[in-house]
Amino acid sequence: MAGRLHIDDWTRHPSLATVGHLQRPRLSPNVAPRQWTSILRREADSTRLCDAFWGLTPEWLEVLDNAPHCARAESLESRPMFREAFATRRCVVPVTGVFVWQQSVRGKQPYLVTHTERAPLLLAGLWTRYRQDHGPERDSFALITVPTSTFLGALTDRLPAIIPLAALDTWLAEETSAAQAREWLTPAPPELLGAFPVSKRINDPARQDWACAYPTGPMQVWSA
Question: What class of enzyme is it (predicted)?
């Protein structure tokens, strides 16, 4: 499951330098659910970078703490919370890593799952708009999770689906059907991702120093 996100400046990567360039993304080494971060979504036939609350918040949701931060790909069409958003309001969350925790005899060890070449990852998501206490309208989102590959199964059983850059515009387009969009909701190829252990200081969401996410051991990569 995606419990935390690592978001460095992904706009420095050549492949994403011109995407959603109207504003700078929110950066953080340790983004937790129910915090604000940046998403890419469609608006007025263009891709826009927007601030959004991590926790999908439909208009009818009365308790903000009940806003789900992840949605299982297998239940998107069967749950009213996710059905409409999956059909018409898909987004991606550009990140530089996803934190997971492996249970061991010494407690839970955090790992950072990243692209093996440390390129950005476009995590599949859903978004909706909400208004709280008669304030301005705001965006919110949830990540879409899928089972992990066998390689990462020892660390976590689920991770957010990753949208290929070449499919970004199609994934975001409202006219893309849910059936078409589902084609990308599959486990990432095992050779795409690696994982390395990091300091347990990252367990505290208040920790925002980048050193918390530095490797404390070698990166584990898939080997055929």
Answer: hydrolase
